[in-house]
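ok trying this again, last paste got cut off
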Amino acid sequence: MPPLSRLPFEREIYEMEELLARLEANAGGEVGSSEEVRRIRRELVNLKRKIYSNLSAWETVQVARHPQRPQTLDYMDLIFEEFVELHGDRAFGDDRAIRTGFARLGDFRVMLIGQQKGHTVAERNECLYGCAHPEGYRKALKNMRLAAKFRLPVICLIDTPGAFPGIGAEERGQAQLIAVNLLEMSRLGTPVVCVVIGEGGSGGALGIGIGDRVSMLEHAYYSVISPEGCAGILWKVATEETKPLAADALKLTAKHLGALGVIDDVIPEPLGGAHRDHREMANTLKGYLLRYLRELRNVPAEELLRRRYEKFRRMGMFEEGYRTDPSRNGEAPS
């Protein structure tokens, strides 16, 4: 694995890791040096825990976008077996931002659908940085219907800054196809599990985000718009000052969304983020996915659809009231 890209708030962590590396190289068999190494290791763990347990919303976005964070294809290799990719939407083409196919997870045969952003420049260009076109959502829905026909659970791994914003995508009905996916997923007669593994941006994420279980990795984000887009609307410019303000206002972290009832679980990440230990993160995610599948496998289709409907109807809170008219001495308007 190449050296990790450094996030701005991780400066102290990397300084201590470099100090630890020097001490380990010079320790030899000296007892005093070994004790110093153990002390620094303990301090490093405490520092990581302190920093990552108090991330701001904008810092969480930066972690979710880390270039070495595990993506769909990484989890495919680490978690799933016997993956057989299904290409194309039978209408236009094969969108590489969404990968889908049959796979095995433990004892379960599943339909896996995931968004892929790519790690290298070549991969990102091929995957359009995870921003799917209409044919990507059409391909995903086609294979969801195939899964429902054979009563195979559907697993969706969400990781996109948003749907592709180009003119061609709009001309081919991007918004309508995402809306169709929302409708069809809400009444898909098979278990659907959705997990935000990195970025969960706008309708691009929602297009494969309606499920019986919707969860997020600890340092992922899920939002109606990116912080940059929000800042551009509110302050006309996205700067280092306005982006953190927008991120805070959007309440886009797993902690916020869990409290608001938008997600079912916050899936813990390795200390210091999923990008530091792909295998540990994959093992944790696998445990949650297997648990969800066991909970859902014996639920009748009618009951599954009823619960799914109620789940999304419960989201959101509001208060009703009226403004009094001073001229009416506080009486309610007629």
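PB: full thing came through this time. The CA atoms of residues 7 and 62 lie 7 Å apart.
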